[in-house]
Amino acid sequence: MNFLSHYYFDLHTDNCYHILGIVLPDLLKNADKNIILHPEKLHHTDPDINSIIAGWNKHLAVDRYFHSSDFFIEHSHSLKKTLLPAIEGSPVKPFFLGHVALELIIDNLLLTTGKIQVDGFYAHLAGCKTAVINEFLTFSGLKDSSRFFRFFDDFKRSQYLHTYAETHQIAYALKRICMRIWQNPFTPQHESQMNQVLGNYRTLLLPDFMSIFEEIENKLIDI
């Protein structure tokens, strides 16, 4: 799941460090794909750092349930097949495209149906102290956090998740993600055709997309 879908499961949490933890695995991956941390079983004397760890573990659980769900398997495969004609000639791997496109559509639906507000998410991130985050990263084994903080500061400043509410921007967001792996993933024609496909698939998912959140919430009760 993407940032806003992870945030949905903790909408009523007032602990900014827990909110940071539920998106931190993806933030780190986006900042530098070579950063690999495993703080899952660590325990710190600072409760704020333990809140980040708890959020991190929640992230892993949500992703595990999501990626093994029939919902994900069915719709990521369907999106992959539906998008194939639209990206003919693109270097992007179809499975990767179907996977990420589904997550972006779900984030868009959460926003456009009023299930979440982006401002609340960014307010939580803004409330986290750099010293606490740095201590968590050092405690987890990261020797140099400078690259992460450059990305994190830009992430907070740009607030680009607001664009996820604009259905015609989903293809652009998808391109941004693909550009981390492929230098020129899509032509303007690809983007135009993808926008049409993604808009149609969003309409298809709209009536029942919350079922995956209900399914995962029921599983989280048991952990």
Brief characterization of the structure:
This protein is mostly helical.
Mind explaining what this structure looks like?
The chain is built from 11 helices and no strands. It is mostly helical and 223 residues long. The chain has one domain (3-220). Helix 3 packs across helix 7. The longest helix has 21 residues, at 47-67. The chain is globular, with a radius of gyration of 18 Å. The model has no long low-confidence stretch (mean pLDDT 93).
Number of strands: 0
Separation, N- and C-terminal Cα atoms: 19 Å
**Secondary-structure element order, as H and E?**
HHHHHHHHHHH
The portion of residues forming beta strands comes to under 5%
- How many domains? The number is 1
Q: Quickly count the helices.
A: 11
Give the % helix: 55-70%
Unreliable spans: none
Mean pLDDT: 93
Radius of gyration: 18 Å
Label the structural class: mainly alpha
Structural shape: globular
The description of the largest β-sheet is: none
